């Protein structure tokens, strides 16, 4: 008896991640036992069908591990499966060392296919890859065992099904060919960069497993993702397109964009780890990792510790941007007001100020509040001259110079009035901090960059000297749920030429993505540097059920639909399912209702879910950065989504109305893309105008 | 008019004569996309917008003369 090494290949990781939490625990137990002694009888390790390398072992009663014996005491976990399938049909698994990359590839050649009943097939289907020979495909790096199946492909759906379980290089090559690239171009752009530097011996598995192309997690890495709360979020294996962005020298600020679930946060975390590892040893925290939201900052810290360990964490300050600004302000100006107030209270404060201090005023308080919040603080304007020069796009009403002069006077008085009461808004904190900030970091990494305001950027710019690898931003304007508009170039952060986009979704199924994109349709977003960004090319390789869209007559009836749906999903109580509603009142009501039905609801508070188990319930704002296997979005009714209260801007301030409406649409989009496997969208009365007729009539 | 804003984007002119589609704009640093976009926007709306340096002194004098001081609106 002796110890063995057991790595985990990426396709096995994906299969493990699809298991229930209990089963994941069992896999973890199994791996631990296996490493101690693979030959212990309880594991029932055996070769199958005379194959010398492919083996199966027992994880638990109905679950089997599929292993590849690499040599000596070295094994690779290549899959997990229900007992029946493993023993009955092992021949469907093919494995090989890829001749191009030298990496190990394991392929399931006959998965359980989706039904194609009801699909209209074209009369004379032309095979998709008829224009390429087998030799060409293999030279490009396509896995040989998949060739027969590839030859039978006639449409995109078939291709997507196949790509679900194809090795990475096969996926990349076939996608590129499908998109119309030539053999030569694919060879140059995709195959050559991943070609093994040394000659490949296709029988030497022990050498192959050590090549990065094998996408094998070591024991330690495997352990980390197994222990992780949100396993999908781990994504230990960066896609080559992601890795390229992480391990690189940038001559200045760089940005990575992409739709929800494309792995932007994971890229940010790997980037921080990479930068920390390049640092010479020493004390202090020369790297800043920041984001807008307090929840996300806490989450980033946990994940960074797990990814990089204490050594990396010791060199990195992880803090949300407003807290950082408050630190800078209190250190730089001890007389600054102490009582921080939410920016949402600004209109109310302006009303009080005008009544108490100004009396008869020709200006509308809401207009002044918005001008102060969005233009003066929003653009971090600190002098009258700067305000005179500032452009005020989409403010609904133009101002002449004398009018600006009056507004500036009022804004200064308002600010003094707040200070006299020891009050300061968070946006003011950021603007004041921006003026006080000094260099204190070598690298700044920002996740969810789209949420930061001009003042935040100005502060960050002042905290890191301009130079190589100074700033790395990840963000997606389609997830913009706070309303800052900002052009980075004007703030001294020039990302032109250093901007890239991730397009492959690792979280959401194609079906859910299609519905979410339909919800977003018609909306145009700016990227952080003034250009327009679209979701073109945004795609997923995951497939699942069609999302359900169901309406009820009343809220009470809709609540019953919620409990029905939870029951239909087998009443998951391990935190893998969540219910999302537009308002706090509805959230409280859903909580009470679930409680009465004997379920254990867990509220998602400002710091995230209060417990990990149960069924999570929260308002749409709370879902940013979270992810669930199953999600219900309830109350997607007219008057609730978008909020009825924004109607008051409709005639008076149409620009504001459009902005608020777009914000609510983004919230719904964010919520929908939190769902990994299944999504149900519910409403009562008239459905939300964001749900197209096609969606509301798709299911009953 | 001092401090004119063009359209919903609010492109700014220092001094403008809207009835004559004529404006004096601030000079920006060369290659600044804001400046380029502004000039393009005024151009597209049929304006003659130039920086003070690009207008000749005579042009400006004539403009002010013709509007007879009403430019201080």
Automatic annotation (TrEMBL), chain A:
Cross-referenced InterPro entries, in alphabetical order? DNA_helicase_UvrD-like_C (IPR014017), DNA_helicase_UvrD/REP (IPR000212), P-loop_NTPase (IPR027417), UvrD-like_ATP-bd (IPR014016)
Reaction it catalyzes? ATP + H2O = ADP + phosphate + H(+); Couples ATP hydrolysis with the unwinding of duplex DNA by translocating in the 3'-5' direction
Residue positions binding ATP = 258-265
Has UniProt tagged this entry with the keyword Magnesium? no
> What EC numbers are recorded for this enzyme?
5.6.2.4
List UniProt keywords, sorted A-Z.
ATP-binding, Helicase, Hydrolase, Isomerase, Nucleotide-binding
Enzyme class per UniProt: isomerase
Q: Start and end of every UvrD-like helicase ATP-binding domain?
A: 237-515
Report which residue ranges the record marks as coiled coil: none
- The identity of this protein, by name, is DNA 3'-5' helicase
From TrEMBL, chain B:
Recorded protein name is Uncharacterized protein
Provide the taxonomic classification: Bacteria, Bacillati, Actinomycetota, Actinomycetes, Micromonosporales
């Amino acid at each position: 008896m002796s110890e063995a090494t057991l790595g985990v290949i990426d396709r096995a990781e994906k299969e493990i991640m699809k298991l229930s939490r209990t089963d994941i625990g069992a896999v973890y137990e199994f791996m631990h036992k296996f490493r101690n002694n693979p030959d212990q009888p309880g594991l029932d390790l055996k070769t199958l069908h005379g194959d010398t390398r492919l083996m199966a072992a027992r994880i638990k009663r109905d679950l089997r591990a599929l292993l590849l014996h690499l040599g000596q005491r070295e094994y690779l976990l290549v899959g997990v499966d229900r007992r029946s399938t493993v023993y009955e049909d092992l021949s469907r698994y093919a494995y090989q060392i890829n001749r191009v990359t030298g990496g190990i590839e394991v392929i399931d050649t006959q998965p359980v296919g989706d039904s194609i009943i009801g699909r209209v097939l074209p009369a004379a289907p032309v095979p998709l890859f008829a224009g390429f020979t087998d030799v060409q495909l293999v030279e490009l790096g396509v896995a040989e065992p998949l060739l027969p199946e590839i030859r039978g492909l006639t449409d995109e759906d078939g291709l997507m099904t196949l790509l679900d379980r194809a090795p990475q290089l096969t996926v990349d090559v076939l996608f590129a060919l499908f998109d119309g690239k030539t053999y030569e171009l694919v060879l140059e752009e995709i195959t050559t960069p991943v070609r093994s530097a040394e000659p490949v011996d296709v029988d030497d598995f022990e050498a192959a497993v050590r090549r990065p192309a094998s996408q094998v997690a070591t024991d330690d890495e495997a352990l980390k993702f197994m222990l992780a709360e949100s396993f999908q979020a781990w994504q230990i294996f960066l896609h080559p397109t992601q890795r390229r962005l992480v391990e690189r020298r940038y001559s200045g600020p760089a940005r990575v964009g992409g739709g929800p679930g494309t792995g932007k946060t994971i890229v940010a975390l790997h980037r921080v780890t990479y930068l920390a590892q390049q640092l010479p040893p020493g004390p202090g925290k020369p790297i800043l990792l920041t984001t807008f939201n307090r929840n996300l900052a806490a989450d980033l810290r946990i994940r960074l510790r797990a990814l990089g360990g204490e050594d990396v964490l010791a060199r990195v300050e992880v803090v949300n941007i407003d807290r950082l600004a408050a630190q800078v302000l209190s250190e730089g100006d001890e007389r600054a007001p102490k009582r921080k107030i939410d920016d949402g209270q600004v209109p109310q404060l302006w009303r009080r100020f005008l009544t108490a201090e100004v009396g008869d005023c020709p200006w509308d308080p809401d207009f002044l509040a918005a001008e102060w919040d969005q233009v003066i603080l929003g653009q971090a304007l600190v002098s009258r001259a700067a305000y005179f020069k500032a452009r005020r796009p989409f403010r609904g009403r133009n101002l002449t110079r004398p009018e600006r002069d009056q507004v500036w006077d009022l804004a200064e008085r308002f600010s003094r009035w707040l200070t006299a009461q020891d009050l300061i808004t968070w946006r003011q904190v950021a603007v004041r901090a921006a003026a006080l900030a000094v260099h204190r970091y070598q690298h700044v990494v920002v996740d969810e960059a789209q949420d930061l305001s001009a003042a935040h950027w100005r502060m960050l710019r002042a905290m890191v000297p301009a130079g190589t690898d100074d700033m790395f931003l990840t963000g997606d304007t389609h997830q913009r749920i706070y309303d800052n508009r900002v052009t980075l170039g004007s703030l001294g952060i020039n990302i032109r030429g250093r901007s890239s986009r991730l397009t492959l979704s690792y979280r959401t199924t194609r079906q859910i993505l299609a519905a979410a994109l339909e919800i977003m349709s018609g909306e145009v977003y700016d990227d952080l540097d003034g250009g327009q960004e679209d979701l073109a090319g945004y795609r997923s390789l995951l497939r699942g059920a069609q999302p359900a869209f169901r309406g009820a007559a009343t809220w009470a009836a809709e609540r019953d639909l919620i409990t029905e749906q939870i029951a239909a999903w087998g009443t998951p109580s391990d935190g893998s399912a969540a219910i999302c509603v537009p308002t706090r009142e509805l959230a409280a009501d859903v909580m009470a209702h679930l409680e009465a039905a004997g379920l254990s609801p867990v509220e998602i508070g400002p710091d995230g879910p209060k417990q990990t188990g149960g069924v999570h319930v929260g308002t749409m704002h709370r879902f940013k950065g979270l992810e669930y296997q199953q999600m219900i979005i309830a109350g997607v009714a007219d008057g609730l989504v978008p909020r009825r209260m924004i109607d008051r801007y409709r005639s008076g301030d149409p620009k504001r109305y459009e902005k608020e409406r777009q914000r609510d649409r983004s919230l719904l989009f964010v919520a929908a893309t939190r769902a990994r496997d299944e999504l149900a969208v519910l409403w009562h009365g008239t459905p939300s105008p964001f749900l197209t007729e096609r969606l509301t009539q798709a299911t009953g | 008019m001092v401090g004119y804003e063009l359209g919903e984007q609010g492109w700014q002119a220092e001094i403008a004569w809207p009835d004559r589609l004529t404006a004096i704009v601030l000079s920006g640093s060369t290659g600044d996309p804001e400046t380029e976009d502004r000039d393009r926007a005024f151009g597209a709306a049929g304006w003659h917008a130039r920086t003070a340096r690009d207008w000749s002194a005579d042009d400006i004098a004539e403009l002010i003369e013709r509007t007879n001081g009403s430019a201080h609106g």
